[in-house]
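Quick check before the chapter quiz. The format below is the same one you will see on the exam, so make sure you can read both the input and the output lines.
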Amino acid sequence: MNGFPLCFAACRIWRASWKFRSIYESLIAYPNLLMRFAIFSDLHANLEATEAVLADARERECTHFVCLGDVVGYNANPHECVEIVRKMDCPVVKGNHDEQASLAESSRGFNALAEAAINWTREHLTEEDKEWLRQMRMSRQVRDFTIVHATLDSPDQWAYVFNNLDAAASFTYQHTTVCFFGHTHVPGAFVRDEGVKRVKVDQLMIEESKKYFINVGSVGQPRDGDWRAAYCIYHIDKNVVEQRRIKYDLATTQKKIIQAGLPRLLAERLELGR
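Here is the expected output.
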C-alpha cells in the first residue's frame, strides 16, 4: 500500500509529459494551429486607443502583430506610439502621415487640419523616431498574405479605396489570397471572384479560390460613425478574419489634444467617429 501513492504520482507525471509531447508534436505538424495575427492600422498618435487595442489582442491570445502604417498624425502622442510599435518589432508598412512627419516640410497637400497636426507632430518626434518612419517599406508580404497602407497598384501615391472599381486596380497587383490595408479609416472588405463586391468583415471566412482586399479600420481615428477603435484578427487556423471594436478612454485623448494646442475639431471628431 505504501508504494501506491508513488506509483500514482509517477503515472500522472507520465500522462502529463505525454500530453505535452502530443501538443508539441501537433504544433510541429500543424504550424497554423495557434497562429492569430492582430492587424491594426492608422493609430494616429492615439495612445489610449492603441493601448486598448493591444490589450484586447493579448486577451484574445494573438500570437503575432502587424501594423499597416500611419502611426502618427492628428493626435497628441506621436512619440509614444512610435516607441510602442518600434519595440514590438513587428512587420510595419509606411502610411502617408508617417512619410510627411519624417520630412523637413510637407511635400504633399494635406487639408488644414492634417497640415496643422503634421507640423506639430514633427516638433514632437525625435530624430530616431523620424529615421524609423523613413525606413518603413511601402508594402510587403507577411507569411502568406500581403500588407499595404493604401493601394497595391501605386502604394506611394496614397490613393483611397472606397468602391469596387478602386479595389479592382489593387487586385491586379495582388499575388496572395489576402491583402490587408488601411488609409480610409473605414473597415470592410472587397472580394474578387467572378467580379468584385464589397462585404462586411465581422467574421469573414477566407476561401482559397477568391481574393480578399480587407480594410481593418482605424485604431486612432475611425470614420465609419463608430468612435470605438477598430482592428482585425486573422485566425490562420480557421481561415477567418474577425473584426474587433474596442472602447478606450476617449475623454483623456480629447483632453490631450486640446492641451497640446492642436485644433479642437480633432478632439471633437473622435466622439463622432468621423
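If your answer matched, good. The first strand starts at residue 36 and ends at 40.
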